[in-house]
Amino acid sequence: MSDLLERLRERGWRMTAQRRVVAEVLDGEHVHLTADEVHARAAGRLPEISRATVYNTLGEMVSLGEVVEVTTDRRAKRYDPNAHRPHQHLVCARCGTIRDVHTSGDPLSQLPADERFGFTVSDVEVTYRGLCPDCAAGA
Amino acid sequence: MSDLLERLRERGWRMTAQRRVVAEVLDGEHVHLTADEVHARAAGRLPEISRATVYNTLGEMVSLGEVVEVTTDRRAKRYDPNAHRPHQHLVCARCGTIRDVHTSGDPLSQLPADERFGFTVSDVEVTYRGLCPDCAAGA
DNA sequence: GCTTGACTTGGACACTGTCCATTGTACGAT
DNA sequence: ATCGTACAATGGACAGTGTCCAAGTCAAGC
Predict the structure, then answer these.
(1) pTM listed for this prediction
(2) CB-based burial of residue A138 (10 Å sphere; 0-12 exposed, 13-18 middle, 19+ buried)?
(3) Which of A106, B12, B75, B96 shows the smallest number of beta carbons within 10 Å?
(4) Can you tell me which residues bind Zn(2+) (chains A, B) (predicted)?
(5) Could A129 and B125 be called an inter-chain contact, meaning their C-beta atoms sit closer than 8 Å?
(6) In Å, how far are A10, A17, A81, B131 from A67, measured between CA atoms?
(7) DSSP helix/strand/coil, A16
């Protein structure tokens, strides 16, 4: 049984077959799936699951802080189950591959107080872009 | 006459009324507009301009490096005419206000070589999120 | 096993962006 | 000044992503 499901249950989540399947899909593959990809994989196990339910469930997981939304391109949001360890993303501009990476310092601390304009800054999203080895080699 | 137009002309751009209007809209307001907002403002001056033309023109400006695309939310891309000074963005999670900010160091140098996985890293996009003073005050 | 309110469904809808065939026009050549 | 042509604009159809809602279903507590 996944840790993700455990944590959600502890927070009073009603446990349904649909939510279980979505959590298992996220927990199972450590890649960054779009909502529709999650739906496709979930439908493999529970054919009658609807798209709306997957969107709702993902949205709830994000609100609870169990999953992080990543927007690396102009297309679909992606969902990253690795929410409890802060990290950044490295994206290939050509093939779209995404890797989790770790910067040497905390990016939040890089924004000086006089550049915050009174904002209460709580989060930072960092996306590096470039070419992966395969694409750089012209593959 | 705008600097933006000057630079584009020097690069062999054919100058049309539509392109002029789009450039003027971007140059005139130092905010971060969506493509459709640009279209709305452009249509104020040149009513028959089409949406496709605005999208095309913005895309060309981005390719030429004169304008930067910013995706701060899941909705529309925004266009930042301030392309020649590297900067990051600070976004209010509630009202969506966007400010240009400057970090204390170069974020690109914060990614160690052993975290690059052979990628040729050429760019980094940093978005800080939080609440602006008004929204934090419950306004 | 009931009851109840939360959850799911599925289809319609909205928004953003792209595509393409047709029409129009800026600009160099004459 | 005029012409020819390649480049640009048009606008309407289309695709992908995400949201909404009314009706039906079901998990969980009693």
Answers:
(1) 0.86
(2) exposed
(3) B12
(4) 92, 95, 132, 135
(5) yes
(6) 16, 19, 5, 21
(7) coil
- Residue B16's nearest nucleotide, by CA–C1', is C26
pLDDT tens figures, A120-137: 999 999 999 999 998 888
Identify any residues that bridge with B34 across adjacent strands, giving them in sequence order: B78
Helix, strand, coil distribution of chain A in percent, nearest 5: 40, 20, 40
Mean pLDDT of B14-33: 91
Any B CB within 8 A of A125 CB: yes
Count of H-run helices and E-run strands, chain B: 5, 6
The spacing between the Cα labelled CA in B120 and the C1' in D25, in angstroms, equals: 52
Measure CB to CB from residue A128 to each of B101, B121, B132 and give the nearest one.
B121
The identity of residue B107, as a single letter, is: P
Query: Are A122 and B111 a contacting pair at CB < 8 A?
Result: no
**Residue listed under structure tokens 């279209």:** B39
Q: Six-digit token pair at B56?
A: 């095309």
Domains annotated for chain A, with CATH where assigned, are 3-80 (1.10.10.10), 88-136 (3.30.1490.190)
Convert the pLDDT of each residue in A39-51 to its tens digit. Answer: 999 999 999 999 9
From the list B69, B115, B131, the residue facing A120 with the nearest CB is: B131
pLDDT tens sequence across B50-88:
999 999 999 999 999 999 999 888 789 999 998 888 899
Looking at chain A, which residue has its C-alpha nearest residue B72? A71
